[in-house]
Amino acid sequence: MEIFSVMASMSLVDMITAPLRKIAGQMNVTDKAAASLSSGALALSKSLLPIALAAGVLLAALAPCISTAAEFESAMAGVGAVSRATPAEMRELSDAARELGATTAWSAMQVAEGQKYLAMAGFSVQENVAALPAVLNMASAGATELGRAADISSDILSAFNLEAAQMPRVADTLTAAFTTSNTSLELLGETMKYVAPVAEKAGVSLEGTAAMAGLLGNVGIKGSQAGTALRAMLNGLAAPSSEAAKSMAALGVVTTDAVGNLRNPIAILGDMAKATESMGSAQKMAFTKTVFGTEAMSAVLALFDQAGAGGITEYAAQLTAAGTAAEVAARQNDNLVGDQKALGSAFESLQITIGSLFLPAMRGLAQAATWVVRGLDMIAASPVGKFLLGAAAVLSVTVIAITLLSGAVWAGTAAWAAFNVVILANPIGLIILAVVGLVAGLIALYNKCDKAREIMDYFVVGAVAVWEWIKAAASAVGDFFSILSGAGIMGVFAYYFTDIYNAAGALWDRLKSLFDIDLSESGRKLITTLADGIKSVLTAPYDLVKAGLDKVRNLLPFSDAKEGPLSSLTLSGTKIMDTLGSGIRAAAPNLHATATGALAGVAVAANLAVAPVAPAPSPLEGPAPIQANASAKGQAPVQRSGKSVIIQNLTVTLPGVQDADGFVAALQTLIAQHDGSGDESGGWD
């Protein structure tokens, strides 16, 4: 063994210890910094706690405002999507909705719904904004939802090919019609759906069509029925059959002008009403059916009866009054309910104003949360995420299963303890336990003691024989009384005297047959079977728990586990140590060189610092041998200064050293010989 080997080992320890100490120091510094940061954060959180609570209360109070503003923003986004409005136009629509919502009985959300229907009807942004007040008035007058009112009015406007600027006219006409006749805005809208396109082509105005619909409503012809009848009437006037044309010509009714265009249908109806005034009811009905057909006949007769020659025109003139919708709406809302609606609309406008301030921050928060959730989704969909989720699922199921098993074991133990208490507390239970104990004792005695087994076998045989004798005696007694009741005393003597020999022989044969049966074996099997049944019932819970614990034991590394990932623990440890040893052997040459250089440097430095350098021998002299039972390699001057020894680049071989104790003893001897502190035999005092 060479001395540099020991010094190299010491150097290796120093190379590991120093970095570890540095790391430990840095960790202590980090811990202190973390503790300082934690205490600072705690102090900051305590100081900000009142502010945070106040902010939480404020946000909770403003939550309805934020929700209302978000809903209004969503509604306006729907309007913008339908109208293809630019950002500037969207601001105009939003401002109009907010203003109407704050100043009328309709909320901004409802106004936005109306704007959407108008945009769907092809209204531009400017037309939409201009038409909204009239639509709101008509909806208030008709007590109809704003969206439905906008839908009806826009459909009628388009059917009569009117400009968007004519929306106030539509609102006033419809309002005047349903407020002066037995109909409603909904029913008028249903009637117009069928008749308006045909009326516009036939030259009937909006007011004239609304007048006819209102007059028909007074007699119960409403909605789609009125629309279908009016459409059939106009078709009959525009293209009459030959028979209808002859009937109208006979009465002097002309349907076309000089250039062949259809005259105003209302004027034609007036001429017909005047021409048929003197007709009887049957003739008038026949004429009407011939001209208009069965479908429209009832509607035409109703118009004749209500309006006469100029009644439709007069009623249509009443529907042209401007401002009708606004006037009716004002009257409709001039009450407490209307005031409450106005208050609700104003409050909603306030909520939108306040909530809109928080919408950008809330949108940013929602988008950030969406990004995080999508990231989690990507992680969960990745192989690593699937593995972690699967492991978590397996762990959860395992924990649940162990919990359930523990609960089941506990419940079983508790139930068994309760069963024991009940059994011990009940006299019948005590008797059952006594019987079970007696049977178990007899079984144990039968299995362990030959003498007891022999006695039990004889007992079984004797019991069977006695039972058979009792059965035979009972049969004989029954026969005796049967014969006695039938044949009397003499018959009994005759019966038994003649058959006594046969009966005795039969009895003897039966007794002999009993001894031919191995009753002892049957009794033994009976008792053994009973004992096995009781044992299986009593030990089943124990076996179940034991099997589960054995399974867990097989997985635990008390030495090598019997199964599972720890079953090759010893082999793994052996392989680790073999690998570590191979690495050390592979690094030994480099370690040797490093240690040699380090020792040389230490020796030179020590010689220069403590004692003068001895003159080195010339190369011709060769290495100076060192005595004291050690052979020296190379050149190593040795000087003594007090009790210290200075070695310069000394490499010493100690022959005969086998272990660490031998190395220490040989090294002490060598130092003592050169130092003079010991005798020639070596050793330190």
From TrEMBL:
The chain crosses the membrane at residues 387-411, 417-443, 480-498. Residues 94-293 form the Phage tail tape measure protein domain. It comes from the Bacteria. It comes from Pseudodesulfovibrio indicus. The keyword Transport does not apply. Pfam families: PhageMin_Tail. NCBIfam families: tape_meas_TP901 (TIGR01760). This is TP901 family phage tail tape measure protein. Keywords: Membrane, Transmembrane, Transmembrane helix, Viral release from host cell. InterPro entries: Phage_tape_meas (IPR010090).
